[in-house]
Amino acid sequence: xxxxxDSKTPATAEEIAxxxxxxxxxxxxxxxxxxxVAASIGRRLARDAxxxxxxxxxxxxxxxxxxxxxxxxxxADSEDGLYVYRxxxxxxxxxAVKRLFPEARLGIGxxxxxxxxxxxxxxxxLTPEDLRAVESEMERAISEDLPIRRFELPRPEALxxxxxxxxxxxxxxxxxxxxxxxxxxxxxxxxxxxxxxxHLASTGRxxxxxxxxxxxxxxxxxGDERQxxxxxxxxxxFRTPDEVEAHLAQLEQARLxxxxxxxxxxxxxxxxxxxxxxxxxxxxxxxxxxxxIEEFARQRHEAGGYxxxxxxxLGRSWLWQTSGHLDWYRENMYAPMEMDDGQExxxxxxxxxxxxxxxxxxxxxxxxxxxxxxxxxxxxxxxxGGVLHGLMRVRGFxxxxxxLFCRPDQMPEEIDRVLNFCVDLLRAFGFxxxxxxxxxxxPDKAAGTPEEWEAPTEALRAAIERAGLPYEEDAGGATFYGxxxxxxxxxxxxxxxxxxxxxxxxxxxxxxxxxxxxxxxxEHRPYMIHRALLGSMERFFGILIEHYAxxxxxxxxxxxxxxxxxxxxxxxxxxxxxERLRGRGARVDVDRRREGxxxxxxxxxxxxxxxxxxxxxxxxxxxxxxxxxxxxxxxxTEDLETFAQRVAREVAEGEAGGGGPLHGAAPxxxxxxTIK
Length: 676
Fold this sequence. Notes:
Elements: E1 15-19, E2 25-29, H1 34-41, H2 43-48, E3 49-54, E4 57-59, E5 69-75, H3 79-100, E6 105-106, E7 111-112, E8 115-121, H4 128-144, E9 148-153, H5 155-164, H6 168-176, E10 183-188, E11 191-194, E12 211-220, E13 229-237, H7 241-256, H8 259-265, E14 269-270, E15 281-282, H9 284-303, E16 307-308, E17 314-316, H10 317-323, H11 325-328, E18 337-338, E19 344-347, H12 352-360, E20 371-380, E21 396-406, H13 411-428, E22 434-439, H14 450-466, E23 471-474, E24 484-490, E25 496-505, H15 507-511, E26 516-517, E27 523-524, E28 527-536, H16 537-547, E29 561-565, H17 571-583, E30 588-590, H18 597-606, E31 611-615, H19 617-622, E32 624-629, E33 633-639, H20 640-655, H21 671-674
Parallel strand pairs: 1-5, 16-20, 22-23, 29-30, 29-31
Antiparallel strand pairs: 1-2, 3-4, 3-5, 6-8, 7-8, 8-13, 9-10, 10-11, 12-13, 14-15, 17-19, 18-19, 20-21, 21-28, 22-24, 24-25, 25-28, 26-27, 31-32, 32-33
């Protein structure tokens, strides 16, 4: 965005200078609106315009411009345009709710990723039938093409305006706003809402079929469990009906792949109320997968020059005061425990202070660097009950944490190594599409000088570019202690996840007094890099369950093959088959139940076992197995030793990131018939 023209730009008392995104400057009468600016540029731009950026701030098309300014017209096909579209759709939904339930009281209703929501205090619990009725009323309001108008009120009048209408939550919103806040409202027909905006010009600019109300969930007022519980109506919203249908199809796939349901059906994990919300119990099958992930990642780490360390689960308050966690992160930490030494101890929310103390435990030379400390470290963070979600949001979790200590001249190479390691590791688990996000310095919050930020920021940027990854820059989005890369990847149904972070840190080496003796014999401050590749083991496992729809690739599957004897007469041979395969390192079960073969095969499919080996007298006499592949059916009869060798080879290929029908994620198109 271009900055506003300076005082040297020619203008008269009745004129202002407007700078356009291409850098050109045009003269307009004072009080011109962005809509008029758009019309002066072109008929098509005026038709497609939905809002404007005025000196960088999103605003309505009809807002008068009284001084020199930079203006960019926001069109419907832009991200800003979609934000405005969803915002106006949220107001449309609130209007429809008020028409159907006049006594309802409104909370807040912002746009969110993929749609919008509105928190409402309704006279009764809303049902799916109510949501369909609200949709119909929304379409009626669209057909009325009601103009959407903005107006402002002084604070006393605004409080009276919402108070006389019984909108008690709006009263509380106003009371919480700063005294100097300009209080604006938007009116469409009989409906008026407190809102900063901006909005579309009329309800008719919203197309029927571009939204769908999804569900109702409980939500505490302002996210505070001490406050009232409201009903949150979630909706999806896109520019076209086709995009809505595609998103609904993705949501259905997400429902079929839900890790909470599959975790129970496949006996992978549980979260028991007797233990506490957000605390995970790993069952044997889930534990087997976790162990394979950790073993695989540990081998990769050690080959990459990492050394594994272990640290305690709690530490004295001094540690967290020095690190800054008690100042910046206390609300996410558990209450302190007072020990008999008179000191307060905290459960650790992070592993970094412990790794720092390992570094500081003895003098370091420039010859020792870089040092790469890794740990599967379990941490504890207090998450509110309302945000806990299966494995995705928990209170106790294990990170694949690492901290790198290096000289300034080593830093670019270390960042390259970490980023490439991250991409390679994720690819081994079946992820191929990546986007990087580079967070840069916020001048109002950043520690250190701009010059100190320049080298690590450019090293991060260069590493992304050398890796050939698409990326976006989040200007000013870094935390106060250094720039960072967040790496996001797409799963099998196109959802984006973020597990990996590479974070440069200026602050902790200073706070803990870290040094190394340089080649010049003097003490120097090392650079420190925080990094997590898979992130939380719990969350990554949840993502894997959903990515593979529970049908894990052969090398990760907790049971790689189940032997199905057709009768008790061949149980001994079934055991022989299992032992032979186990001798090759395979994970094998024998189904000894007195059920029919068809039932056992069906159960093996439901348990998503990669191979089902049916054995009878004929197979026993020939030393073979009748092979069935998951979701593919019969694959023919195979010599036992040949099959054992092939399974060992396929496991090795899978661990190396190889393909194959039992290695890749199940395509979404096949799931409707395989997941019930």
